[in-house]
Structures are given as structure tokens and as C-alpha cells.
Amino acid sequence: MTLLTPPAAVAPTRAMPARLFAAGPRADAAQHAACYGPLPGASALVEELRASGLTGRGGGAFPVIAKIDSLTGPPTTLVGNGSEGEPLSRKDATLLHHAPHLVIDGLLLLGAALNPGARLVIVAHADGVDSLRRALLERGDGQGIEVRVAEDRFVAGEATAVVSSLSGEPALPKDHPAHLTERGLGRRPTLLFNVETLAHVALIGRYGAAWFRGLGTPDDPGTRLLSISGDGIGEHVLEAPGGTSALDALTAVGAEAGSIQAALVGGFHGRWVPARRLARPLTARPAGDGEGVAVGAGVILALGAATCGLSVTGSILRYLAAESAGQCGPCVLGLPRLADRFDEHASGRELDAGHVWQLIETLPGRGACHHPDGTAALARSALTVFTDEIDRHRAGTCSEGRHR
Predict the structure, then answer these.
(1) pLDDT per residue over 143-172, tens digit each?
(2) pLDDT, averaged across the chain
(3) Which CATH code of 1.10.3210.10, 1.20.1440.230, 2.40.50.140, 1.25.40.20 fits the domain covering 309-395?
(4) What sign has the CA pseudo-torsion 193, 151, 299, 329?
(5) For residue 133, pLDDT beyond 80
(6) 202-221: per-residue pLDDT in tens?
(7) How far apart are alpha carbons 68 and 138 in whole angstroms?
(8) Does the domain spanning 12-212 belong to CATH 2.40.30.10?
(9) End-to-end CA distance of the chain
(10) d(CA 56, CA 348)
(11) Is 1 a residue whose pLDDT tops 50?
(12) How many CB atoms lie within 10 A of CB 130?
């Protein structure tokens, strides 16, 4: 199983209702206009967003209207974030390849609604920049939008890291006492949304909140893009209605339900979900035990029966330890130690689980950003889901046929 590959666009899978890719593959300005019509006015946009229930698609699932309401003044900068530092994610690059005009529309509409004089910027991974620039050249209303290439590192996509990069500093997350909507770029109100979120804003601006809620569930309306990969299924980007289960998404791209032992849902800061829970609905926000599965960054990695979940998790933990911002002890010292302790315990070399669990319990909440929190949560879920594999490692009968 290959994990640490850079984001790349794939052809979107049309196994479910498609809104974001309705104009077809690599849609140019003419195809976009023929499918969606002209850009509408923005006078009613904020109230339509309020009624829509749209949540951010970058991983945090923060309600879009709540972020707008938290602005302490007209935003001086609006940012579309397509950094996509998550190694398993392909959705933003795919969106920028095939539907860049929807992203541009969403940013223009928000600018017109909130501050027509605002600076408009889209930060994209290198793989999506060329498509975005071509799209801007095709239209007369996008010449004022700046395009920036995102740094290729895991933490560079975090909101404060993106704003730091726009100010000329390294793209590293910061312990920010004030929200960006209060004091962001240039210490002025700044609004940042994931590029997929902007594409949904463009659709809501055209068709309204009631149309948006025509798919999904009352608690998770609309659709979202899912980056799906794993043993035997290749890489896919699927647009799925809210409330779709991980199992339905996996089978939609060709996975065989009986061949999956577990799936990593939400990306490298997500959680392992055993096969018996994959039929539960994906939710925008964490649900109670026995209810839904938090979709996080919109990533699903399927694990086949012959793949060792502990080995995969160990590789991810090593990667995350190396990808820290290097700004605080919990990252610089704690994450490498967590990777070591995880490997020692999971392999059976360390029988006392207390050492690794102490790190899992004490790292969260102590860092300058949330990187230690997400990394510890991943380790916790692996040790919870793959308990039988730990016993097999100790016995020398690992599912991959070898003891690490």
C-alpha cells in the first residue's frame, strides 16, 4: 500500500449524484456557463448561506455562516485554500482540474457580498495551479484574483499557516489567540475557506438553500467530495450526499465489502474504523458512540484483510513526526517519542502499554497547534481497533506474514 504520494488529480467517479462536476471533465469557461449559467448577484448570498447549513469542507466542518458572523468588520482578504497538505487527499486538486470556475465563482460572490474591495487569493497545491490560472485567463471578472502556490508539507494547509505564507513568512501554523476573522492578514479581518466550500457557495448563490438541502440530511445537507483509495481499488474522488456511509462510498468505487477489515476515515488526523462500523453514516462533525463516523478531511483509506493496520499506522506516525512545525516540545520531542513507543508496543517488543498510552493521553492540548492532538488520536484509534493484530505481532503471525 502506497501512502506518501503527493496530491494529484484523478478523474471523478460518477457513481452518485454529481453537482460539482456537472459541466464535465476539465470544463472550460464556455462549458461552465452552458451548464451553470451566468454568475448571479450576491445581494441575498449571506442569508441563503445561513439557511443552507453549509459547513466547511476542509476538515474542521465549521458552519460557514458562523465564520461569516464572527467577522469583526468587512474582510480585507478572502482566501480560497486548496493547499491540500493531507497526503491521502485528491479532492481539491481534482476540483481545480475539472471545475475551477466554480471555485472562482464562489470567491467572487463572497467578495461581492462582504467587501467588493477585498483582496482575493487562491492558494493551491502545485498540481492545481495551472488549471486555475488557465481558468482565470478565460474570464473577464477574475483578473484581480491572486494565485499562490502552497508549500508541500502537511501542516502548510492549516488556516494560520496559509495566512502566514501570504504575509511572506513560512507556512507554519501559529498559536493564534484571536480568530482570523478578528485579526488575520495584516492584523485585519480575514476570511478563509477551503476551495470545495467555495464551489458549494457558488451553487448556493445560483440555486438557493432549498436546492442545496435537496441532497444530504438535515444535519449534513448537500454533497461533499471524498478522496478514496486503498488495497485493490486505486485512487478515486467521489461526490457523495451527506449521510452516505463509508461502506457505500467504498463499494461505489469498486471495493468488495467482504474484503475490507477497516478503513482510515478523515486522513492522517482521522480515525481507524473497523469493518462492522463502516455502514454508519459519515457525519460532518464527530457523533456520539454508536452513531455516525466523522468524515474529517474527506479521506477514506480502505485496508484489505492481508494488510497490517499497525504497520500502516506506524509509517503514518513517522511521517507526522517528521512533518511537525518544529515550534514546540510536544511536536519536536513528543511525536518522535510517540512513534517509537507505538512501534515498540505494537510489535510486541514492549509489553507494557503504559508508556505509549501516557503519551497518547498527555500530548493533546499542549502544542502550539493541533498537530499533536490529531497524531495522538490516530495512534489511539489504531491501538483500539487493531488489538488482535498486536497479539499476532507478539506471536509472530502478523497478517502480512511477517513480524516487524
Answers:
(1) 999 999 998 888 888 898 999 999 888 888
(2) 90
(3) 1.20.1440.230
(4) negative
(5) yes
(6) 999 999 999 999 999 999 99
(7) 30
(8) no
(9) 16
(10) 41
(11) no
(12) 14
d(CA 77, CA 117): 9
Q: Would you state the cell numbers that stand for residue 186, as one nine-digit string? A: 495584516
Q: Which residues are CB-neighbours of 157 under 8 A, at least 6 positions away?
A: 58, 81, 83, 84, 85, 86, 150
Give the span between the Cα atoms of 124 and 35, in whole angstroms. Answer: 25
The order of strands in the sheet holding 234-241 is: 12-13, 234-241, 223-230, 299-304, 260-265, 271-274
| pLDDT of 10 above 80 | no
| Annotated domain spans of the chain | 12-212, 309-395
Cell 483578473 belongs to residue? 143
Q: Looking at residue 403, what is its pLDDT?
A: 36
Amino acid identity, position 180: L
Which residues, in sequence order, are CB contacts of 232 under 8 Å at separation 6+?
255, 256, 259, 302, 304
In terms of Cβ atoms closer than 10 Å to its own Cβ (0-12, 13-18, 19+), residue 76 is middle
